[in-house]
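Checked the freezer inventory, then went back to the computational side. Two predictions to log before the end of the day. The first one is the construct we discussed on Monday; recording sequence and tokens without edits.
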Amino acid sequence: MKVDFNKKYTTISVYTIITFAVCLALVIILMKISTIFGLVSTVAKILAPITWGIVIAYLVNPMMKSIERGIKRGIEKKKPHPKIARGLSVTISMLFFIAMLALLISIILPQVIDSILNIFSNVNNYINELENFVYKFFDDYPDIVATVRQQFDVIQPKLLDFANDMIPKIGDLAVKLKDGAIGFLVALKDFIIGFIVAVYLLLSKEKFLAQARKMTHALFSKKASANVLRISAHTNKTIGGFLTGKIIDSLIIGILCFISMTLMKMEFVALISVIVGVTNIIPFFGPFIGAIPSALLLLVEAPKQVIPFIIFIFILQQFDGNILGPMILGDSTGLSAFWVIVAIFLGGGLFGFAGMILGVPVFAVIYELFSEFISYLLKKKDMSAATADYMTFDEYTPPPKSKNINMKNLFKKDKSDDNDEINNEKVSIKADDAKDDIKPKK
């Protein structure tokens, strides 16, 4: 028995099956979401050394390229030595990277330890100073002073009870500290392995890039491969330029903060300068995020320095946002302030501190690709892709037409033009032949 398939109903059936399969897959994913997240977390932990290696290589690569260019100018005057130049540049850049990390740790750790010890050793003095300040402030209001004194009398027994309750939990705290120490050792192990991975990536980065291009061309068509490589290059340029510029910008801000606070004779100069410099990597909110814990440190040790410090941070943030940042970064992301805030909140909410740093350049790439897609759809409808054309556009106004020239048709010759050229050539040839016939023979 022969079955006649109707193309229309066959197409509908195929689309129905695909839709059902997609819906079923989504339901399974939602039902097993915790298992999927657990699997992703396990894979992320396994690949943590590789991730560290890629991050370190990405950060060190600009410095390595600069050093490599200088080495090549010095040793490749007669004969090229690419392996020697690459090996020396990787070694020097990695040693410099380790030296910078050691310098930061040597500055931060002693300051943090001294600050914590100072805070705990002077807790009683801080409470007494706060109590005296409240009494002096409300000296003309004896009722308020009596109320505050009663509150302090209530707080002190609660603090003692809290201390007594904490004593049995010291064992649990020791277990947590042990787990934290183990976690720190695991992270340190991942970082060390990642450092070795970064060395291999930098030594053979051209080979790895060539393998990635080879795989891209093998998996996709020529047009799709070109688009994938173009998007990858643009992503690398945007993220790399943003991170490099932000690191240089934050380093300069940290140095300026250190010099200014030293001249102003403030406390915790090195620690606060490092905090301000590191948090400045976060766009928009970075200076304020660094200023809050720094102001609290000064409030504990030197309350009179808090207001001058806040004024100084505000001036420094204005200098960075309006002068230094645009000078170094330029318009590397192309995002408005609103989208920068959205990118920071999304990145920070999903991926924490790293997401707050990388959220802006990644969002900038997605934003540009989406804009290209919208422009492509508008051009297919012969509509303008310029945002300015839609400023006065409403439901009663016809959509603006595209003002762009179709480049595909621009270089196409009309067949009638080709025929005219051929006919003109034939006429000119016949005219030349006629002239030759008219010439008198010698």
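The second is the one RB wanted added to the comparison set:
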Amino acid sequence: MRRTPTPRTAGRLAACAVLLVAAAPAACAAAQQGSGANDRNMLSEARIDSLPPAQRQAWREYIARSRRLAALDSAEMRRELAATGQAAMKAAPNQNGSTVVGEHPAAWYRSPEAKRIADAILTYQTPSGGWSKRVDLAAGPRRAGTNFTSESHWSYVATIDNGATTGQMQTLAGEYAATHDAHYAASFLRGLEYLFEAQQPTGCWPQVYPLQGGYHDAGTFNDDAMVHVLRLLQDVSRGRYDFVPDSLRQEAATRVKQGTQCILNSQVRVNDTLTVWCAQNDPLTLVPVKARSYEFPSLSGGESVGVMEFLMDLPDPGPRVVRAVRAAADWFRKSAIYGYDYTYKGKLVPKEGAGPIWARFYEIGTNRPIFSGRNGIIRYRMDEIEPERRYGYAWYRTDAVGALKRYDAWSRAHPGAQAGRP
């Protein structure tokens, strides 16, 4: 099913720009422990009303756009159910195993499989312009009355979680390059408009948009969600996709700048020292907040790697970017753990000469690795949480090894990164 793109709201770029200039660097407060927004309603009317006028107006317009787009999504499903005589929507087939969306070798896009996947992607694009996650696209196109998501309820419609939306757009772009079928380009452009609409007035992106509520409304670095968006927009702005009009390339470049400001304003400062990033941040203040029961406000030894690498890839980093990267590299080196091997079966095994590894979460202020089960109680030993969470989550990572090697070369090209306090 192919739909006409919804028109962009006039003046939203100006509103975003006003807020980015006016926003105080709230994320730089000492030893941030999260905010009072952990009540799960981070965008309540009371919180919006407490903002300065320019910020208040920008957020009201953003939330109003979200509601209009959510109404389009739900209205389409109601129409389909009425047309097919279904009492309830069916869940999309769930994908088990590796995803097929994203970038592939050029030869793949000339295969029958690629065309089947791309055609299915067209049908799973929401009226709001994005896509959900974990949908088995190999099962074929979406049928009327089938949910846009494989969830059993109306959830993650649509999202940037788990590489969703950005992955579908990359597949569409590759298939357009192979076939020059205009439907693929048109769907990509609708997805691009969706990403523009989803960007918050702070420059961040929520995990789910239209807004779903709870931690899904937070600015989300978790699983590299925002980094995926920013890298795709960078590709757009640099002309990688020749079917994107110049006006949208320019807007993509503006959105990357705003997203970079979100990153810089979200970097956690402890005792007046810049460190790294939390996996999710309060949408209004950018202070670290809790997500799922076992994901506390913390310093991320996982997601911060992707953020640091994105900043190192900026073509002309200013002094603030250089300071941010230097601080992150310093934190990674100070927080490295040696003498242990970590297995993804949830075991931390002493081993001479092993390491470095990094915990997924570090407690803000003490810099101690923290762990939690579904009961939401912080533990300081991984073996103190239930086996299901111990084995079902990557509590330690090694990604920073490669990032620090890149940093050594990067710092030589940016001498200000070699010494001094952030």
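For RB: The two ends are 51 Å apart (CA to CA). Residues 53-84 form the longest helix (32 residues). Let me know if you want it refolded.
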